[in-house]
Amino acid sequence: MRSIKYAAAVAALSATALSAQAATLDDVKARGELNCVVSTGVAGFAFPDDSGKWSGFDVDFCRAVAAAVVGDGQKVKFVPTTGKTRFTVLNSGEGDILFRNTTETMSRDADLKLSFLPVNYYDGQGFMVPTALGVTSAKDLDGASVCIQTGTTTELNLADFFRINNISYEPVPVETNAEAQTNYLGGRCDVYTTDASGLASTRSTFENPDEHAILPEIISKEPLGGAVRHGDDQWFDIGKWVVNALIAAEELGITQANAAEMAKEAGDNPSVNRLLGSEGEFGSMIGLDGQWALRAIEAVGNYGEIFDRNIGPDTAIALQRGLNAQWSDGGILYAAPIR
Amino acid sequence: MSEQTVDSYTAAAPQRNVVSRIWNDKQTRSVIVQIIALILLLLFFGSMVRNAIANLEALGKGFSFSFLSTASNYDINQKLGWEYDSRSPHIKATLVGISNTLLVAVSGIILSTVLGFILGVLRLSKNWLTNKLAHVYIEYVRNVPVLLHILLVHGILVHSLPAPRESKDLAETFFLNKRGLFLPTPETPFLGYAILLFFGLVLAGLVFSYFFKRWAQRIQDETGVGYPVFWINLFAYLVLPILVTVGFLLFVGWEQPELKGFNFRGGGVIRPEFMALWLALSFYTAAFIGEIVRAGITAVSKGQTEASLALGIPRGKTLSLVVIPQALRVIVPPLTSQYLNITKNSSLAIAIGYMDITATIGGISLNQTGREMECMIIVMALYLTFSLLISMFMNWYNSRIKLVER
Ligand SMILES: N[C@@H](CCC(=O)N[C@@H](CS)C(=O)NCC(=O)O)C(=O)O
Predict the structure, then answer these.
(1) What is the ipTM of this complex?
(2) Same domain, A194 and A311
(3) Which residues of B touch A112 (CB under 8 A)?
(4) 20 to 30 Å CA-CA from B140: which of A48, A133, A166, B104?
């Protein structure tokens, strides 16, 4: 089934000569819409509601880029992908940019030819088990059946973790989060493993979330971030600085509500002025106008607002900021300066 | 002016005659058209390949198979005796995938053929109920996509079977639960020996049968004494090997599955993914084979049976010597394409996580290395090879059973 998709992508690669240095910016502007590669559905990160409207943490980053580039956060076409299809879809040009719970790794960068935008969620791989099993540590999982999404870093970490700890397991490969959920709840596997954020999100959709525990061990580093194809530096810069702008906005106290007000005239904080376009020519450096960041913030709010609205402590997913707090708040979120 | 026209007319005339003569010759024309078509086709494919390679290079990805020897970094649940782990290279993962594909394809071909022949015969039954039941089954199964059958069987297995701790057991030896059917297996080296022993004996039996058949034919021609050749040969190449192998296995140690921690350990397991794929593919394909068998038998004219009976040939022999050989001629060619279908449809394995070729080299390896072009080429080449092998075998069989005209 998936192979058909690959065959199609391979065929697409063969049929047309891609112009390698295509200016993605021009294509997106001409189209008037951003094609954003997301997941098939992870509550809080990227999820279509009953009417087909997407929302979530990853979705908001797509909308921010669309707002900066085409001027409207609603002008996004979401391209749902599995762990396995996401990079092919991006590389074949079906998507312009990817925000899909995706870990930055060296081989994805250098071998799959993706350029990663700044990390927008620092995560790690965890394990979820039914509390009824009475397991308290991942080291107790000897002999367990483990549901695992194929085409992910989690699949590779898992093999390493069990081998290093000299314990055995039965991998039960699945394609999507939804499939993992059916197999896990149906009892085909004892354990579901993926990014800890993904586990929290999946558990929040269960009928009885309390009957499932996330084990204390985090077995990997999963810096999640957006990505674009290699070869279009201008487009990469746009993605990179939109993410930085949203993070910086939180640090500078710019919110969805006050952004327009603060942008009206240059105030006495030059950092705010540069970000909102009343000082300097930063927009034109990346091929956009001076209000690029203002539009992004007005569309989805700053990083903190995006976090709180979609996955924060007051949502069903209830994730704490933890590592994802600003550097000035004890976290490691640290936007490069816009200057 | 007019002179000139006449001139050019006379000058061009013989030339046009040559062209039109060539063009009007049916055979030459078809050769020319075919050559042109072939050139265009080659140009088309050439440009596709060139484009693909250029595009991959533009993306900065060269074309190379060297990734095959690097560590795969992923585990596979059903390894069929391969010593594979996440440190093994991608090429070994491919071999495991090939074994898994072949296992499900061959098991599917066997089961669907048996079920298909039963269905075909039931469809011809004079008993109204069996006839209709077979008909309803065939119509239902044929008209629902095979992917849905696979998902359905897998869903039923996983959701209706008990958890490992509540396993259903048969004589405390076989255990059935959500994780599969756990069964005892001969201790490690003996299973391999048993398989070798079995196939060795089958081969020896086949060689014996070949010579015995010729010998028996000669005796019959010379003296008129007939031997039950079929039964003796069947004993030689099937019954005897089975008996000897079973006998051998009775004397070696066995490993018994035991519930330890989360799952059963020891012994062997048939996973629900394999069961679902195997059963669904077989049930589905059996419906088509049933129709093929029915058509094949109905195609043999009644007169043949009547003539045979009139000659005093008993019913059983009429069936095996007159009807079935003629029916097979009609059945075998479409049967071949069903066998090809089952092999290709086995790639739907990936929908339920059965680790076949498509899921290993065409799935995880492809994705983790980003070698789309190389992996797809390997996967396609493998399916093409399997299909060609099946076609070759069936063509050989078909030519053996075809009408010998004298
Ligand atoms: N971060 C890992 C894993 C990403 C992943 O696939 N996570 C799952 C669980 S959160 C997911 O996003 N599934 C979405 C889907 O099934 O469409 C990676 O980049 O490989």
Answers:
(1) 0.82
(2) no
(3) 370
(4) B104
